Every structure is written in C-alpha cells, then in structure tokens.
Amino acid sequence: MNLPLSSPLCFSLKLLDCSSSSGMNLLSVSVVLVVLVGAWAQIKVTRPLCDSAEAEEAALAAQDYLNGQHTHGYKYTLNRIEDIKVMAMPDGNSTYVLEVDLLETDCHVLDPTPLANCTVRPKMMTSVEGDCDVVMKKVGGAFTVTAFKCKTEESTEDLCLGCPVLLPLNDTTALSFVRETLVTVNNRTKNITYSLLEVGRMSSQVVSGGPTYIAEYIITEANCTETCSPLLDASAARGICYAKGKEGAHTVDCKMFPVQVKCYSNTTVAAASPPHVHAHAHAHPHHHGFRHHKLTALHNPHLSGLLSSESSESGEVADAPAPIVKRDAPVEPVLEANPVLLVPLCPGRVRHF
C-alpha cells in the first residue's frame, strides 16, 4: 500500500519517493538508523583524571582481578594509570575502559602476604612490566571485569654492566643448579621431604671464576614412597627458596608460607584452597624460552574492539566465564565536553619507576 504524496512523513523526507517500493525501503532503513543512533546518543562518555579517586578505585579493582587470574609466578602491583574512559549507560550502570601499567613484585602468587606489603623488583634485578587494557562494568557500586588484554615484558631500561641477567626458565644448567640446592634443603630437614613445584626465576651473573647462578623456586611437601611427587593438597607445606652460587658451592635459604585455613562456627577448620599452580616435577618447565612468568594475556575476545592492540600478545588465555557487553551498532558515542584544564587528564602519576 502506497502512502499519499501529501503525507506529512513524505513531506518531511523530501528525498524519498514514497509512491515507490524503493522509497519505502529507504524509509525503513532510515527509521532503523534513527532509532539506533538515538539509543547510542543516550550514552554519556566522560574521561576522568587518571589520578582521580574514581580512576584509582577502578584501577585497583582491575589489579586485584588480574592477580586473581595469574596462577603462577609473582603478584603484580599498579604503577600507573595510562588512560581511562567511562561510558554511562541509560540503565544507570557504567562501563569503564582503562589502560594500566603494572610491575612485578617479589611476592609469589602462593604467598599470602598482602600486596601492599610486597616489594617491587628493582630494575637492576631485571624488572618485569605488565601493560593491560581492561573493560569493567560498575553495577550497584561493584566492579566486574568483562574483558582484558595484557602484554608482559622485561624492562630494558637502566640495565647495568655486570648485573644479573635473566635466564630462560628451561635453562638446563640453571635447573641442574636448582635441583642441587633442593638436595641441600632436604638434607637440612627432618621428617619431611620437599619437591620442586615451580621455578620463579633464574639468572646468572658474571664474576671472577665463572658465572654465578641466582634462583628463586617454590617447594611443596612431597609424598614419598618409591619416588617423591609434590603434594597438591591445600594443607601441604609450601615455601619459596632463594639460592645463589654455582654447582658444588652454593647457599640456599627458604621461607615457608603459612597454611591458609577457613574457620567455621562449629570450631572445625578446613584448609583454604590456594591459587592452583601446576607442578613441574620434571626437569623442563612448560614456559619454553620464556625468562619470566607472563600475566594471562587475553580474556573475552568478544570485547576486543574496546581494547587497544598495544596490550595484546599471544599466550595464556583465561577460561573463566564473564558477562559480555553487547554493542548494537558500531557508532561511537559523543564525548561529553570536559572543562578546559591546565593539567593533562592522563596519564597519571608514576608510583614506582
């Protein structure tokens, strides 16, 4: 059925020929686009200061989430907020897109020491940096991470001549040194035997008389019958060992982690499950060629369009389910005008180096 040529709708859209089927098709497409653009027009986009309390709250929530996904190696702490964008949705909730820089600390993920009490690894010991883009939803005042991409790499700044140099985690000579120092540890203990759970990092330093090895590795209580295998039970004793020297002449000291327990009202206790760490009972860890443990690289590729490509790298992918934010049209919302400031919005302050 054709609309009369005098129809107000046809009058307002003079370019359309409402007397033809092609005109009606164009009209339908135009109406759909108007509806979609109208929906996106209700999204208000702001860019808070990277050093604002709002940005700090979101960045710390992202930091804690990323550490929760990191099941091996060391904890990371916030160093700088590079950028942040907040999209206020019509339903009252908000989506945050932020870029954060993280630094590796000396606390292993199994170490219950609060992150605030962990020390950032200095540059001369080859610091490791994480560059992450994170998408978060804030509903009812609580943040939920829906997507992230991370790139982890060694810092190449301020490297000194003669400083320790990181070795691949599957370096055979360094692993032989680790096994030798573990024998020393077990010779000093009574009624318990420890197995290698994970190598944290290994490095070498050139000194007179040849290279000196420096190693950090995680030990766990072992179940020994004919052979010894790591106990993966939550109540098993675990700790981190620091070894230095060369084969046949070394020192090694270990710090045991307190066993985490949950208390119940009926006075019974049960061991809390620590982060899962895959045991490397064999000589070669799975991180072939890597000299440090990487952050989980990617989660939820459906939202990769909101994330920059700078933080992406191939690597471990998180498999935990998370909500997906649906985008109905690839139309960029209009950025709300902010007052003119004498200082840049971003990046924020550097917390460490």
TrEMBL record:
Taxonomy, superkingdom: Eukaryota
Major localization listed first in the record, in broad terms: secreted
Gene: ahsg2
UniProt xrefs under PROSITE patterns: CYSTATIN_FETUIN_A, FETUIN_2
GO molecular function, one term: cysteine-type endopeptidase inhibitor activity
SUPFAM superfamilies for the chain: Cystatin/monellin
Organism: Takifugu rubripes (Japanese pufferfish)
InterPro entries (alphabetical): Cystatin_dom, Cystatin_Fetuin_A, Cystatin_sf, Kininogen_Fetuin_HRG, Prot_inh_fetuin_CS
Compartments where found: Secreted
Domain annotation Cystatin fetuin-A-type: ranges: 45-153
Keyword line: Disulfide bond, Glycoprotein, Repeat, Secreted, Signal
Protein name: Alpha-2-HS-glycoprotein 2
